[in-house]
Amino acid sequence: xxxxxxALLLLVFTAWAANLKLYLKDGGYHLVREYxxxxxxxxxxxVERSQxxxxxxxxxxxxxxxxxxxxxxxxxxxxxxxxxxxxxAERAIQQEVLRIPENPGVYWLxxxxxxxxxxxxxxxxxxxxxxxxxxxxPLPLVSGKATVExxxxxxxxxxxxxxxxxxIQLSDPExxxxxxxxxxxxxxxxxxxTIMPVTKEVVEExxxxxxxxxxxxNDGLYKIWPKMPLTPGEYAVVEYTASKLNMQVWDFAVxxxx
Length: 258
What we know:
Shape: elongated
Order of helices and strands: HEEEEHEEEEEEEEEEEEEEEE
Radius of gyration: 31 Å
Number of strands: 20
Strand content: 35-45%
Mean pLDDT: 85
Low-confidence stretches: 1-10
Helix content: 10-25%
């Protein structure tokens, strides 16, 4: 990418240098690569004829030529600055990518070191009891209400930054995000479920948090962070397929720094 941007910059400036207009007082112009004012004459390299030529200074509209040259130079400098900033941002992204493991999962950066968040074991709680939730093994469900739960009322993964950034490497092209979980009776409720009669269709009701997301690679690595600072409480990064009951959960908590 850096080489491509550098080459583009070179092409931009080469195009600028090879397309100067040397304006004449009669309204015409010569397309020149460069020009030099020498006493009462102007020496220029003609793009059309690929050779150096001269003409009297009195025939050249030097003021108009220099004004356009100055304007174009400013525009190109602005473009070069934008390209340089994009190059800098691209290099920063590549440095991030190199720090994140390629294995599917959720990570965060502590300084320059990637830390992994262990996936929580989630289960579906119905009036028949609890069953461990597994992505590739659909559970036999009866009509009614249910909840997806994870053990304990508080996460051991604690952050004090309410705008904490996470990196998620997807295992498949699935949905993902951050949701709020609710402690209740020794567990944390990840989401409520409604199992429809007859069809057994599962209606999921997660309390999702609005997030920003940035795709870092083509193979499913994303950086995500909340649009608004998270209030103190329990949360989780999740990966799931809507209505398939295959949610993977990586829990964390946000606490106020002391």
